Amino acid sequence: MNAPTALTHLVPDVHQREVPKALFDALTRRFGANCSTAMAVREQHGRDESSFECPPPAAVVFAESTQDVADAVKLAAQHDTPIIPFGVGSSLEGHLLAVQGGISIDLGRMNKVLSVNAEDLTVTVQPGVTRKQVNEEIKSMGLFFPIDPGADATIGGMSATRASGTNAVRYGTMRENVLALEVVTASGEVIRTGTRAKKSSAGYDLTRLFVGSEGTLGVITEVTLRLYPLPEAVSAAICSFPSIEAAVRTVIQVIQLGVPIARVELIDHNTVRMVNAHSKLTLREQPMLLMEFHGSPAGVKEQAETVQEIATDFGGEAFEWATTPEERTRLWTARHNAYFAAIQSRPGCRAISTDTCVPISRLADCLLDSVQEADDSGLPYFLVGHVGDGNFHFGYLLDPHDPKERETAEKLNHSLVTRALNLGGTCTGEHGVGLHKMDFLVTETGAGAVDVMRSVKRALDPKNIMNPGKIFSL
Description:
Elements: H1 21-31, E1 35-36, H2 39-44, E2 59-62, H3 66-78, E3 83-86, E4 103-106, E5 113-117, E6 122-125, H4 131-138, E7 143-144, H5 155-160, H6 168-171, H7 174-177, E8 178-185, E9 190-194, H8 206-210, E10 218-226, E11 228-229, E12 233-240, H9 244-256, E13 263-267, H10 269-279, E14 288-295, H11 297-313, E15 317-322, H12 325-336, H13 338-345, E16 350-357, H14 363-377, E17 381-386, E18 391-398, H15 403-422, H16 438-445, H17 447-460
Parallel strand pairs: 2-4, 3-4
Antiparallel strand pairs: 1-2, 5-6, 6-10, 7-11, 8-9, 8-10, 12-14, 12-15, 13-14, 13-17, 16-18, 17-18
Helix pairs in contact: 1-3, 9-11, 10-13, 14-15, 16-17
């Protein structure tokens, strides 16, 4: 374990590269109205859900095909100009900010489901397809795609950030569920990685290299995903607890006993209060677990009874069951709206949202100390967690015009991540490194490992045009 990194800058390191007029002219000739330099369009593509501020990209290209992406990348490479892939802008760590200027490639129009192979449990989609769109397309076949990060993110963006979310405790993350990719490299070449087969020993695992690379190695233009049969029975439940510790101890015991729970989400009392106000609910304003069980009717019943018994031992009460799709949707919609509920609870605020993941045995140690620090700071915050796999999120709500509040939030984030690393965890369970966790990547993996990553980056992107300034500096 390396020594914890020091608290560093609170704003992104911006070094804009000049975009030559010749590139603007070439993009306009090739893409016409699908290339925009309008300030409103540029600003829309120059901001995500992070609290960072940065100048917008110099232009936006709306790609409609792999060939469009390849042509845009080739033109940018000729002029040593950065390329930043854009999905729906829901990233949380500054992934799409043009810290070195350049061209944003909007992949939202590449939104077709290309093929569904129900017999093989796979689907191939373009990168602009959203997770909800995938599930709408395949539900009539009795299938579903389980990765659910909350936001209706694009499959391309979810692949690029190695997203996971509420179902990861049972179904894994994008790492386990992406089988194959089509990628445009930094030279504009189109390559394919992986196949629809469930496994392979053929050469380097390039699919896993690009999954989680955050757009720094290439632009993903096609994704083949693993699908799952819709469970025969689904049941959801909420349970309130007298303390966060009681809720966390319940989760730890459930996981260690091997109960195949599909989802288990922790929401603290602050977040319950915010969600009640936002979604017009009347949930008990106490720490709460929101759980879901998948399987046969008998299996779901057995899982639920086991979890209820464990929760009762830790003071859990007010179980509320939801077995109809409408009831389950009501509960999970409230959970997915937690971020927006929190933002609305303090008008004009921005959230510094951070996530860590620790071994399940250390979850209580990490979480309880972090809650105490956040309470002592006096800064409003919300807490949610996919705690079944040791992953949780704090959102510190700050006045973006108050430097002291930003510094307080960053100190809380720094302390939280340092604590997680010291407990054998990671600096980010699913948000990715982006701009915000660059120093912590060195702390977590070591300088030698980051140098290996730099070597890969230089080999695949010698001009450093693929989303430069993210993950690590060159």
